[in-house]
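Can't paste images in this forum, so I'm doing it all in text. The chain is below; anyone willing to post the predicted structure tokens underneath?
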Amino acid sequence: MDLERFLEKNQEQCLSKLPSYTPMSIWELPKYKPTHNCYAYASRNLQPNLSGKLQPGQLSHQRPLQPDEYSCSNFKHLIALDNPGAIFMDENKPCPCGYTKAFLTLDVKEPYRDYHFYRENFDPATGQFLWMHKPGSLSVKTTDGSGNLISDPRYANRNERPYEYDVDCGYICFPPPKPNSYLALAKQRLGLS
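Text version of the structure:
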């Protein structure tokens, strides 16, 4: 059975495992907001004692990429080491049940080299999927650089001054957080998503 037919048959169960949209989420709490960036948000890697923002490769004890090393293949390599079981896709297709879909883009132009992740969330109130992102230590946003809701980050305005994220690295399915992960325990304790 292919993934799309499986998801169609098991849609309700799969939707309950997706990150859901809530205006007040754990990512907005003062303890986590300043130290949890787009990568932590997209991959759902809430960490209890970060001193700086989570970088691709950090969870697998790799050295961070230098700006002149920014390429889709280098980031995907570090993401795979941090998140065993991650799936990389060129097309916007469904992820396996319980996985979180994200999108990676880069700005590789001097002097503002940077990376940015977007995450797809499910809004149970409307039954709609929403793409959201967390620029650095700022709040999670539902809008793109033009102020429009993001239906697909590939086609959104990804200019977030001073960055122009014009390199498309594709979609990523991040494996679900483990039941005993810090994120799962904190959400359970606080009753947040």
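The longest strand covers residues 114-123. Residues 72-82 form the longest helix (11 residues).
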